[in-house]
Design a protein that fits this description.
By secondary structure, the protein is α/β, with parallel strands linked by helices. The chain has two domains: 112 residues; 70 residues, no CATH class. It is 45% helix and 13% strand. The chain has a five-stranded mixed beta sheet. The protein is elongated and about 50 Å long. The N and C termini lie far apart (40 Å).
Length: 194
């Protein structure tokens, strides 16, 4: 992972470059973004992310998608790993289209070459609970979980578990994640106005 941070403007510019690259080759690519990028594009409390966690939805065009990402990196001076698919370990085996929102078509206009979808806040919340099995810089996954759960109106552990099972019906949260649920609920309650 690179040490430079990506803000929303930089990410959108990179999507524009990727879209133009694909359009110029008569291709249309689709990606779904998760994690910090999906949070950054939906909420003002996240101002930057380390990279763009994404899954390519267009199987046969994956090589073209990777070439488009590399082109954007070169053109905009981004790290080679600005777009990666390491998020796969946190996604369920099958994802419903209902888990996502259309973020945008790139470039904007009549003929986009790239469609970008982003994980909905509730899905991100469930993913952050799943991610609590590992340490994250400044406990970012925990803090994101608290922010997302607050936004979703989560008030207790049962609601948080119900949300998790909505997206991961065949899984149990890791014992480390389960142990941190009371701490998360307490943090959510502290955030609420009295």
């Amino acid at each position: 992972m690179s040490l430079s941070k990506l803000d929303a403007e930089t990410i959108v510019r990179a999507f524009e470059v990727m879209g133009a690259y694909l359009r110029d080759r008569n291709l249309i690519g689709e990606i779904a973004v998760y994690g910090g990028t999906a949070i950054l594009l939906q909420f003002p409390w996240r101002t930057a992310t380390d990279d763009v966690d994404a899954v390519f939805s267009t199987g046969e065009a994956e090589a073209s998608m990777k070439a488009a990402a590399a082109y954007a990196a070169t053109l905009l001076g981004l790290p080679d790993d600005w777009l990666n698919n390491a998020v796969g370990g946190f996604t369920p085996e099958s994802e419903s289209d209902d888990f996502f929102l259309l973020q945008g078509d790139y470039p904007c206009g009549d003929r986009p070459g790239l469609k970008v979808f982003m994980a909905k806040p509730e899905y991100l919340c469930a993913m952050k609970l799943k991610a609590l099995t590992r340490a994250s810089f400044e406990d970012r996954d925990f803090n994101d979980l608290v922010e997302l759960a607050s936004t979703a109106g989560i008030e207790d552990a049962e609601q948080l578990m119900d949300l998790f099972f909505r997206f991961y019906p065949d899984e149990e949260p890791d014992p480390v994640a389960k142990a941190r649920i009371p701490e998360a609920i307490e943090a959510i309650r502290r955030r609420r106005p009295r």
